[in-house]
Amino acid sequence: MKTPRATLERYRLIEAIGIWEGGISNARLRDLTGLHTVQVSRLIASYIEANPGLLEHEQSAKRYRWKSNAAATVSLDEYLSILVTLQRQGKQAAEFIHEVRVDLTEITPSVYTVLNAACATSKAVKISYLSMTNPKGQTRVIEPHSLIHVGRRWHVRAWCRLRERFSDFNLGRIRAAELLDEPSRHMSEDDDGWSHFVDIRIAPHRHLSSDQAEVVKAELFGGAEKWVVQSRKCLAMYVIQELRAATDPDAQRPPDYQIEVANAIELKSIMFSKS
Question: pLDDT-based confidence at 186, cuts 50/70/90?
């Protein structure tokens, strides 16, 4: 029998709280779900039955503790996202946790919904697009295949009929979008930059002292000498920007940059191209 979606979402909530708060209590789950005591008890019991070996009862604390050897199946970002959403719904979820990341891109629903529909139905879109080359705007017809959120910005990956190539378009620069009754002729599998992946090798900045480098390795790499991030080829530069990793270590120096791209020369050919 298939588990209802609402139950699966509550299971995910149990995992998020269990992992990042060390355990889950009836009272905490009541605050977050609005369910009654008996309903919460049944929910926890059904979760344990469906996912044995993750929670163990702590009688003294009146809660179920997340076992220390159990895998963390929910990221810290997802946990925070869940709490922030519940807090906005009026639940006592995260009163002392503050999300201060700032998204500078203003996306209008009228633009996003058109691009979302285009990706879902493989249709072309006519957009009015601002760029540094054409700051007053230019009409483009694009064939979108994916929407991407990287750092502070939203992008759409699409074939551009004007440039005759795949490009990334910043949603904040799209002033208007119109869904056309024309099928896309270029799909994601045709997009080499999307289909192929590259390894971005991150290392402590070469101009840090040995002691400073050890701090960076402990903080970011779990003590390892380097850290490898795999990225779609066309998104690699956005990932590097989000990590604030130096690609020219002699010019981009500490303390502004504490890590560098160790294989920047290999990745030079996939840096930004003009849209």
Answer: very high
